[in-house]
Amino acid sequence: MDCDFTITEVKIRLADEPRGGLIGWASCVLNRTLFFDSIAVFRNEHGEFSLSFPKKSSQHGAEYHFFKPITRSAYQRFLEAIVKSLDLTRKDLR
After folding, report:
1. pLDDT at 94
2. What are phi and psi for residue 59, nearest 5 degrees?
């Protein structure tokens, strides 16, 4: 099975002044045991949501993610859980 995990909790922190498509940050708990924080939530001009997972950049421009899904279906699970939580948090985001 590609995605053998359950997102058991999602919290949303909305940006005070959304810009550049950023609307806020999400934190997720997986299987009631792992906490993932500072997932940036974006919305493009077509209304589609996307996520950016925390990373740092080296002085040479290489990017190193602290964590991220490694399959498309795992990414989709995060995205669906976060968007569902956004819908419950802010009805005007639809």
Report:
1. 46
2. -65, -15
Report the top-level CATH class of 7-93. alpha beta
Ranges under pLDDT 70 in the chain? 1-2, 89-94
Q: Which of 30, 29, 69, 64 is nearest to 50 (CA)?
A: 69
Q: In the chain, what are the domain boundaries?
A: 7-93
pTM of the predicted model, to two decimals? Answer: 0.86
pLDDT in tens, 57-80: 999 999 999 999 999 999 999 999
Task: Write phi, then psi, for 76 (nearest 5 degrees).
Answer: -60, -40
Q: Which of 76, 84, 92, 91 is nearest to 10 (CA)?
A: 84
Q: Using alpha carbons, select from 83, 69, 50 the residue that is nearest to residue 3.
A: 69
Q: Which helix (H) or strand (E) holds 12?
A: strand 7-19
